[in-house]
Amino acid sequence: MASDQPALTIESLDVAYGAIRAVQEVSLAVARGRVTALVGSNGAGKSSVLRASAGLAPARSGRVLVGDTDVTRLPARKRLLEHGVALVPEGRSAFTTMTVRENLDLGLRVGRARAAAGVAATFSLDEAFELFPVLAQRADNRAQVLSGGEQQMLAIARSLLMSPSVLLVDEPSMGLAPLLVRRIFAVMADVFQRHQVSVLLVEQDTAIALELASDGYVLEFGRIVAAGPSAELRDDPRLRRAYLGEGNRP
Amino acid sequence: MIQYLIDGLATGSLYVLLALGFTLVFGVMGMMNVAHADLYMLAVFSFLWLGTDAGLGTAPGFVLGVAAAVAAGWLIFVVVLSRVDKAVPLALFVGTLGVSYVIENLVAKLVEFRARSVPPLFATTTWEVAGLRVTNSDVVVLMATLAMGLGLLAWLKLSSTGKLLRAVSENTQLAEVVGIDTGRMMALSVVIASAIAGLGGLLVANKTQGINPFVANDVSLKMFAVAVVAGAGSVGGAMLVGFALGVVESLAVAYVGSTWQNVIGLLAMVGVLLFRPQGLFGRYNRVG
Amino acid sequence: MLAVITPYVDSVLVVALSYAVITLGLQLTLASGQFSVAHAALAGLGGYAGGLASIDGDWPFPLALAAGAVTGLVAGAVLAALLARTSGILLGTVTIAVGQTLAVLMRNLNTAFGLRLGGSQGLSGIPTRTSLGWAAGALAVALAASLALRRSGVGLSMLAVGRDETVARSLGISVLATRLWGFAGGGALAGLGGALIAHNNGIVEPKDLSFASEPLFFIFLMIGGLATPWGAVVGAVGVWWLQELLRFPWSDDGTFGFLDQQDRYWILGVVLILVVLFRQQGAISRRALRAPSAAAQ
Fold first, then answer.
1. Residues of C in contact with A17 (CB under 8 A)
2. C-alpha–C-alpha distance, residues B90 and B95, integer Å
3. Which pLDDT band, with edges at 50, 70 and 90, does C281 fall under?
């Protein structure tokens, strides 16, 4: 696998739910070891792109490639176990009736399976506890006792333990207070950088997303309307137009 | 009064045994299998046909009886449960009802619509202690029920596969996302449920010493009610509620008369549900 | 055409059409999003009411039928009021309990208000007045009413409530009123059908109200299709005929090759499984009724 080959490539993706065309002819690429943001207003279709990449939403046409392998026809489980496509879902992302440790074990389980197939683990349980001390403190408590932000951290840690080749993160800021969002993004920036994780980040808070990401795509009504390095994208008038008014500027 | 308690626990054992499997599948798959109770009937008849009629012997017959229940349960899973859209509950109800009709009436045809007596697996003795009567077969049933119920509970909580089952039960889509083979877990839940129904059913039939192809009809409603009142997927709850129902019925027969026996339990359960619609121990609403 | 209707066909059709009326009632209740399993009970109550009207009141037949319908309506409305805050499995379970309780109640009541109810033997001696004409007429009325209701504002409300109660409420639809319509209307039709059956069999028994009698109507709807009232009619008549044909009435001894009359139950079971696997929406779905058009639905 060439190291300059994208970790994830989406070609002309069409996602439709019945008669509703959520995503139309979307193409994008996630560079290896870098964070790519997919932004756009509510209902633009961002989550659908992510879910189709994970294998949870049906692709009416188009392709999803991990490295140079076409995974479009594969179910979510296979994409995860065999090709390392790990999703950090929006909202309920932890099993509340299981302990923090048990939740993390689910990630380790996948990591071990992938290690048996020859994929080196780059993230350990100890590192997870170091990175997110609250997980260590609450290791044997039910995930239910964690706050929304802490559950988010749990989900991220769990996904990293899976030795993912590409991480799909769905709206991590959803439902969280701004200060908490900054903290989580700071942690994500740190760990993604250190472990060279390839990430496709879907996020409604454009400002913070483009701070974390090196590249970005803007989605409007299911189509890509702008793309480029985040530094350029931040000042792109099309980005502002894709939202009502100024968007999420401080 | 204690005698009623004992009798109630004995009756309740059957409810618990059936409800355990029913609620496990209900929890993991989100589906109700109306034909579940028929599996125990199938196990007993298989035991009779293979162990007694074909002369294979009691122990092999017993094992084959359980195997028959498991095989039938798995078949139901493959043919019906795994293919029906959960979002259309009527389809599932009618589909599993059809399965029930098929199982009950095919067996009935084979036995010419007659009930059969079940030879005891071991010599029965009755003990009288302090004015209370208890038979050893009652004790066996009770012990087995407790063992299977508590065993299942422990397994779900502590074993790695048990945890996977619980994950699928709580949030099936998230389970897929973390790489759990939800299809295999669902099949496993059906196999376990069927085995418990078969094993337990054989012991109960040993106690009642009789079986007919349509036994399931009387007990199905109660099995369903116990599972719903306990809460979907709540194994421990099913045990408590199942035994409680047995005891309530036993007391009802003594104090109110047998005509109301069947209904009183049902009414009590409706009363519970009106206060806690998710069931007594239903901890979460199923997601996905 | 009338020559085809032999006394045998007549007797089967009468039952089928009466069942169709009851099934229409179930379809109505289900369409309002309420999974009620008490319909057999409502039908049974209608049968008792109609029977009493004929026996003790000596009412003319149409009035006796009306008595059945009104009883069903009132019982349905009471249920709706009781279950105003419940839905889903809870509703189903409660309705099962109600049905069972009513069955036990009737089994124990030998008289009420000075009128003979028959207790566990059931109310016998009901004059057999149901003819094919009456059954067909009642069905026509029931079907017309169901179809009209569907197209009316109430019908649309029902569809909305059946889909998503919260959304319906936000649109200003009174969920309570809609459910009332669904239960009361469904109950009325069930009561009517029950009265028809009672006047056909000459007797109403407590077991007719129990849960054991219930699955039949769900089977009719499943096979006929639950989206529209037509499904109820097709399902009831179709399935009832199917199980009649499986009695192999043309043969002398009720056999067909190696099959005999007893086999019809498991054969029906197989049919159910096949329908559920291949046509989960039943024979008649809303889509099938719509003429194929270019626009997406």
1. none
2. 8
3. low
